[in-house]
Backbone:
Protein backbone atom coordinates (compact mmCIF):
# COMPACT_ATOMS: atom_id res chain seq x y z
CA UNK A 1 0.00 0.00 0.00
CA UNK A 2 1.44 3.36 -1.00
CA UNK A 3 2.37 5.86 1.70
CA UNK A 4 0.48 9.04 0.92
CA UNK A 5 1.55 10.92 4.05
CA UNK A 6 2.49 14.53 3.45
CA UNK A 7 5.84 14.00 5.16
CA UNK A 8 7.00 11.85 2.30
CA UNK A 9 5.65 13.74 -0.67
CA UNK A 10 7.93 15.10 -3.34
CA UNK A 11 7.20 18.58 -4.69
CA UNK A 12 9.08 20.15 -7.55
CA UNK A 13 11.43 17.19 -7.59
CA UNK A 14 12.51 17.85 -3.98
CA UNK A 15 12.03 15.61 -0.97
CA UNK A 16 10.84 17.10 2.34
CA UNK A 17 14.40 17.10 3.66
CA UNK A 18 15.67 18.85 0.55
CA UNK A 19 12.94 21.48 0.76
CA UNK A 20 13.77 22.09 4.41
CA UNK A 21 17.47 22.47 3.58
CA UNK A 22 16.61 24.88 0.76
CA UNK A 23 14.47 27.01 3.09
CA UNK A 24 17.26 27.11 5.66
CA UNK A 25 19.79 28.15 3.01
CA UNK A 26 17.41 30.83 1.73
CA UNK A 27 17.18 32.27 5.24
CA UNK A 28 20.96 32.21 5.63
CA UNK A 29 21.45 33.94 2.27
CA UNK A 30 18.82 36.53 3.16
CA UNK A 31 20.47 37.19 6.51
CA UNK A 32 23.88 37.69 4.88
CA UNK A 33 22.45 40.05 2.27
CA UNK A 34 20.53 41.99 4.92
CA UNK A 35 23.57 42.37 7.16
CA UNK A 36 25.82 43.44 4.28
CA UNK A 37 23.24 46.07 3.31
CA UNK A 38 23.52 47.50 6.81
CA UNK A 39 19.92 46.66 7.64
CA UNK A 40 18.54 45.26 10.87
CA UNK A 41 17.64 41.59 10.97
CA UNK A 42 13.95 41.02 11.68
CA UNK A 43 11.80 37.94 11.20
CA UNK A 44 9.30 39.98 9.19
CA UNK A 45 11.97 41.41 6.93
CA UNK A 46 13.62 38.04 6.33
CA UNK A 47 10.27 36.42 5.54
CA UNK A 48 9.47 39.21 3.09
CA UNK A 49 12.86 38.77 1.41
CA UNK A 50 12.55 34.98 1.13
CA UNK A 51 8.81 34.63 0.61
CA UNK A 52 8.64 32.25 3.59
CA UNK A 53 6.31 32.42 6.56
CA UNK A 54 7.47 32.92 10.16
CA UNK A 55 6.63 29.28 10.79
CA UNK A 56 9.49 28.20 8.53
CA UNK A 57 11.83 30.70 10.17
CA UNK A 58 11.22 29.28 13.64
CA UNK A 59 11.49 25.72 12.36
CA UNK A 60 15.14 26.52 11.59
CA UNK A 61 16.22 29.23 14.04
CA UNK A 62 15.10 30.24 17.50
CA UNK A 63 15.92 33.92 16.97
CA UNK A 64 17.51 36.38 14.57
CA UNK A 65 20.64 36.28 16.76
CA UNK A 66 20.98 32.54 16.18
CA UNK A 67 20.54 33.11 12.46
CA UNK A 68 23.13 35.90 12.42
CA UNK A 69 25.62 33.74 14.31
CA UNK A 70 25.05 30.79 11.99
CA UNK A 71 25.41 33.01 8.93
CA UNK A 72 28.68 34.46 10.25
CA UNK A 73 30.10 31.06 11.22
CA UNK A 74 29.16 29.65 7.81
CA UNK A 75 31.02 32.46 6.04
CA UNK A 76 34.11 32.31 8.24
CA UNK A 77 34.51 28.53 8.50
CA UNK A 78 35.98 28.16 5.01
CA UNK A 79 38.31 31.13 5.49
CA UNK A 80 39.61 29.82 8.81
CA UNK A 81 40.22 26.36 7.35
CA UNK A 82 42.04 27.79 4.33
CA UNK A 83 44.38 29.92 6.45
CA UNK A 84 45.00 27.15 8.98
CA UNK A 85 45.95 24.68 6.25
CA UNK A 86 48.30 27.18 4.65
CA UNK A 87 50.06 27.85 7.94
CA UNK A 88 50.29 24.11 8.61
CA UNK A 89 52.09 23.42 5.33
CA UNK A 90 55.70 22.37 6.05
CA UNK A 91 57.66 25.29 4.58
CA UNK A 92 59.91 28.04 5.87
CA UNK A 93 58.01 30.68 7.83
CA UNK A 94 58.07 33.38 5.11
CA UNK A 95 56.65 30.90 2.59
CA UNK A 96 53.95 29.79 5.04
CA UNK A 97 52.93 33.39 5.63
CA UNK A 98 52.91 34.27 1.94
CA UNK A 99 50.80 31.23 1.07
CA UNK A 100 48.39 31.86 3.93
CA UNK A 101 47.81 35.49 2.94
CA UNK A 102 47.46 34.60 -0.74
CA UNK A 103 44.96 31.86 0.11
CA UNK A 104 43.02 34.26 2.33
CA UNK A 105 42.77 36.95 -0.34
CA UNK A 106 41.85 34.45 -3.07
CA UNK A 107 39.10 33.04 -0.85
CA UNK A 108 37.70 36.52 -0.23
CA UNK A 109 37.79 37.28 -3.95
CA UNK A 110 35.85 34.10 -4.72
CA UNK A 111 33.31 34.75 -1.97
CA UNK A 112 32.98 38.53 -1.50
CA UNK A 113 29.97 38.13 0.79
CA UNK A 114 32.09 36.27 3.32
CA UNK A 115 34.61 39.09 3.20
CA UNK A 116 31.93 41.70 3.79
CA UNK A 117 30.52 39.77 6.74
CA UNK A 118 34.00 39.92 8.23
CA UNK A 119 34.97 43.46 7.29
CA UNK A 120 32.11 45.59 5.93
CA UNK A 121 31.78 49.03 7.51
CA UNK A 122 28.03 48.94 7.03
CA UNK A 123 27.28 46.12 9.45
CA UNK A 124 26.16 47.47 12.81
CA UNK A 125 25.13 44.35 14.65
CA UNK A 126 26.38 43.70 18.23
CA UNK A 127 26.54 39.95 17.71
CA UNK A 128 28.54 40.28 14.49
CA UNK A 129 30.89 42.72 16.25
CA UNK A 130 31.52 40.12 18.96
CA UNK A 131 32.05 37.38 16.40
CA UNK A 132 34.54 39.58 14.54
CA UNK A 133 36.53 40.00 17.74
CA UNK A 134 36.57 36.24 18.20
CA UNK A 135 37.79 35.77 14.62
CA UNK A 136 40.55 38.34 15.10
CA UNK A 137 41.65 36.52 18.26
CA UNK A 138 41.64 33.21 16.35
CA UNK A 139 43.85 34.54 13.55
CA UNK A 140 46.14 36.20 16.12
CA UNK A 141 46.59 32.84 17.85
CA UNK A 142 47.52 31.16 14.57
CA UNK A 143 49.98 33.94 13.78
CA UNK A 144 51.51 33.83 17.25
CA UNK A 145 51.84 30.05 17.18
CA UNK A 146 53.49 30.12 13.74
CA UNK A 147 55.86 32.99 14.48
CA UNK A 148 56.57 31.90 18.03
CA UNK A 149 57.54 28.39 16.92
CA UNK A 150 60.33 29.85 14.77
CA UNK A 151 61.88 32.34 17.20
CA UNK A 152 62.77 32.77 20.84
CA UNK A 153 62.24 36.25 22.15
CA UNK A 154 61.48 38.19 25.31
CA UNK A 155 58.74 40.01 23.39
CA UNK A 156 55.22 38.77 24.12
CA UNK A 157 54.46 36.99 20.85
CA UNK A 158 50.73 36.93 21.51
CA UNK A 159 50.51 40.69 21.99
CA UNK A 160 52.69 41.33 18.97
CA UNK A 161 50.52 39.03 16.85
CA UNK A 162 47.38 40.89 17.93
CA UNK A 163 48.98 44.16 16.85
CA UNK A 164 49.95 42.83 13.42
CA UNK A 165 46.68 40.97 12.80
CA UNK A 166 44.84 44.17 13.68
CA UNK A 167 46.79 45.95 10.94
CA UNK A 168 46.14 43.19 8.42
CA UNK A 169 42.45 43.26 9.33
CA UNK A 170 42.30 47.00 8.67
CA UNK A 171 44.11 46.54 5.35
CA UNK A 172 41.63 43.88 4.26
CA UNK A 173 38.76 46.06 5.38
CA UNK A 174 39.97 49.01 3.28
CA UNK A 175 40.45 46.73 0.27
CA UNK A 176 37.03 45.07 0.52
CA UNK A 177 35.31 48.41 1.08
CA UNK A 178 37.28 50.08 -1.72
CA UNK A 179 34.12 51.17 -3.54
CA UNK A 180 33.27 53.26 -0.50
CA UNK A 181 36.78 54.40 0.44
CA UNK A 182 38.04 54.97 -3.13
CA UNK A 183 41.15 52.81 -2.63
CA UNK A 184 41.09 51.43 -6.16
CA UNK A 185 44.87 51.10 -6.23
CA UNK A 186 44.56 48.04 -3.98
CA UNK A 187 44.07 44.70 -5.68
CA UNK A 188 44.15 41.14 -4.40
CA UNK A 189 47.83 40.34 -5.02
CA UNK A 190 48.90 43.70 -3.59
CA UNK A 191 46.87 43.13 -0.44
CA UNK A 192 48.24 39.61 -0.01
CA UNK A 193 51.79 40.89 -0.49
CA UNK A 194 51.37 43.72 2.02
CA UNK A 195 49.78 41.41 4.58
CA UNK A 196 52.59 38.86 4.20
CA UNK A 197 55.18 41.64 4.56
CA UNK A 198 53.58 42.83 7.79
CA UNK A 199 53.52 39.38 9.37
CA UNK A 200 57.03 38.55 8.16
CA UNK A 201 58.20 41.83 9.69
CA UNK A 202 56.75 40.67 13.01
CA UNK A 203 58.71 37.42 12.80
CA UNK A 204 61.88 39.31 11.90
CA UNK A 205 61.48 41.71 14.83
CA UNK A 206 60.92 38.81 17.20
CA UNK A 207 64.05 37.06 15.97
CA UNK A 208 66.10 40.21 16.53
CA UNK A 209 64.72 40.96 19.99
CA UNK A 210 66.84 39.79 22.95
CA UNK A 211 65.72 36.59 24.60
CA UNK A 212 64.75 36.55 28.26
CA UNK A 213 68.06 34.85 29.11
CA UNK A 214 70.15 37.61 27.46
CA UNK A 215 72.05 39.97 29.74
Residues:
Amino acid sequence: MADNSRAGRVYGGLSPAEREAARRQNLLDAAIDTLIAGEKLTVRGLCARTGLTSRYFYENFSSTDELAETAYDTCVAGIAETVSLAFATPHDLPVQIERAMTALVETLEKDPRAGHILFSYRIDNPLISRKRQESTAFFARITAATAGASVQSSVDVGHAAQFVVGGVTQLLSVWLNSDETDSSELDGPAVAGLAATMINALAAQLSEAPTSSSS
Summary: The radius of gyration is 22 Å.
